[in-house]
Structures are given as C-alpha cells and as structure tokens.
Amino acid sequence: xxxxxxxxxxxxxxxxxxxxxxxxxxxxxxxxxxxxxxxxxxxxxxxxxxxxxxxxxxxxxxxxxxxxxxxxxxxxxxxxxxxxxxxxxxxxxxxxxxxxxxxxxxxxxxxxxxxxxxxxxxxxxxxxxxxxxxxxxxxxxxxxxxxxxxxxxxxxxxxxxxxxxxxxxxxxxxxxxxxxxxxxxxxxxxxxxxxxxxxxxxxxxxxxxxxxxxxxxxxxxxxxxxxxxxxxxxxxxxxxxxxxxxxxxxxxxxxxxxxxxxxxxxxxxxxxx
Length: 273
Known about the structure:
Elements: H1 18-30, E1 38-40, H2 41-44, E2 52-54, H3 55-63, H4 69-83, H5 88-97, H6 99-110, H7 117-129, H8 139-158, H9 182-192, H10 197-208, H11 213-220, H12 224-243, H13 252-261, H14 266-269
Antiparallel strand pairs: 1-2
C-alpha cells in the first residue's frame, strides 16, 4: 500500500494522521458504485446479514459490541484468504476493515516513538496477513497484535536514542479518531493516566481481541505470570476510572464487562510461587 499522500482526496492532517485518513477515504470509495467489493453473508453464516455486505458496512458490523467472536472470525478468515490471493483490492480492503484497530495501535505507538507510526503499523499488518494462523481463534486480534509488536520493534530501532521512556515530543501524541469502539475507551484511559500504553495494549489484546495471555507472553517474550499480575492491577485501575465516570463513553460498559467476565487460561489462573 502506497505510503504517500495523494494530491487529491482528504486534506492532510498533522504529522502521523495522513496515511490512515487517506486509507479511510479510499476505503469508503470501495463501498460505492453498483459493484462494491463485498462478502456474501449467506456463505459466512453465523449472525451476519444473509446478503452481500460491502466492506465498509462489514467493518461497522464487526466492530459493534453485538457482533460475536465467531462472526468476526468467520469474516476475517475470509478476508485473509482473499488477501492471500495477492489481489491488491482485497489487501487494501482488509486494511480498511481493520482501520479502527489500526488507529488505536498507531495511537499507542505515537505515544512512544517519533517515527512514522502509521506507515509502520500498516506495513506490518499487511505482512501479518500472510502469516497469521487461521486455525487459531481471534484472527483480527492476532493480526493487530503481531503488527503492533513488529512495528514497535522497528520504530524502537529507528529512534535516535532509545531510552524506553514515553515520547512526548510536540505533535507525537495524536488521539484516535472518535470511532465508536471499545479501544477508544482504552485510548482515553491512557490519556487520563489511568493506565499506561503497555497496559492498554495488553488489555486490548487479551480481553477485546481474544489473544490468549499465553500467546501474548510468547509473542512479547515476557513471563506469563508477570503479565497476569500487571494486567490485574491495570484492570483494577481501569474499572475504577470507568465506574467513576472519568471515561464517560457509550462503549465504556463494553470494556468493563469484558474485563470482568473473560475467563483466564487455566494454566495462567494457577498461582505460581
């Protein structure tokens, strides 16, 4: 996907906003006309509409709280399979459907690094389309987590001085666009100081994207029990912030419910010395 900003289309925003805005503009164009790029909900089954679904509409359906995990996985397995044919339209369409999640990951990266975070997250998302395991549940969560991990490593290596401290350079921290999505609550929690960037990524991946704590630990090279303890403490702070009204948002209840009801891996739940 071209990282450059086109001469026409949406106006360029501040540094770090251009690429995803351009992708969104082109993505919505894909949903117009008599034959928009679409999937057949009748073949996907699950709870999706039994008709042709244009990709921009599919994105809205998949990010709604009423959409179940099985629905998301069925749709994303098809999207990945189509993208793996090498068809540029389907590769671009897959990025478009994932835009809400990509914006959130880019927001987290922009709080840590000064590089082109949006270009990095999109590039590694496209690469992950070719490697993600479609037999594992949580396809889009695995895609986004893999892209975030690889982009973070790349951006860290490109930093002039890598201290590991959050970056607060002017213009580096860009809030995600106001899409109705639980990730927005996590982004607001980071801005409010209730949780850190790393804790938002951990909670988002393991609670909202169906990435198991075991898989997350393996991907990041961190001890699983340490992650469990960090997540427990972060979730407690997040729940206090939500219940106090500090993060008032119609999707806050979704995050609150998810963090209260998700069952831990059996091997993780056993306390270790």
